[in-house]
Amino acid sequence: MADESFECPICQRSFSSEQALGDHRRDTGHVPGQMDTGGGISLPSGSTVGKWAVGLLVAAAIGYPLFNPQFGDPRYPTTDSDWHVDYSVVVCGEEQPPFPDFGGGIHSDGDGRIHIRPRTPGDAGRAANLGVFFSNAGGRLTRDYLGLPTGGTHASGSTCPAGDTAHLGVFVDGERVQDPAAYVPRDGESVRVVFGPEVNPLPDSGGATTSGS
After folding, report:
1. Torsions phi, psi of 207, nearest 5?
2. Is 123 exposed, middle or buried (0-12, 13-18, 19+ CB in 10 A)?
3. Are 180 and 213 in contact (CB under 8 A)?
4. What percent of the chain has pLDDT over 90?
5. Which ranges constitute the DSSP H helices of 93-167?
6. CA distance linking residue 212 with residue 177, whole number of Å
């Protein structure tokens, strides 16, 4: 008596037992009637695709902190952070009002404070910098240019109403920052942005007391 065999209707492979055929179908998703338009090649089952998707998500979740140099660095906020930084802006001797309330991972409630609460990895780390804060507010900040969200632009080398040449300086806890747009303020720090004749111009390269993050 010839040995009985069990054939997969999708790939035509033969198996010595019904259990072996069942295991094959479960592993490959070779379910009868599940063929692509080219004929003869099976499409993955929904459960197989789901397993692949879950596997990719798990790998990404594990790989992101391992390969992200900012992970575990206390200088940078994460999606669990809730940091608060006082800030002020002075233009030609006049203190400017706090920025209006606006949202984002780095935002303000109109209270003169920077609130750093990243909601996604894209908002965290080095992305939570002063340049993003000003941009989210509707303004702009570079090492020699200040654009206020309430209107008004001020570039180093231009003059104040009294005729004095003014320059831009950004200070964190009293120390000048060379690259303010890239600086990531930390919880409890105080940021002061000053445009006026009392600020010395930055040299073309280097020379500032504190480098940006």
Report:
1. 95, -15
2. buried
3. no
4. 58
5. 130-137
6. 6
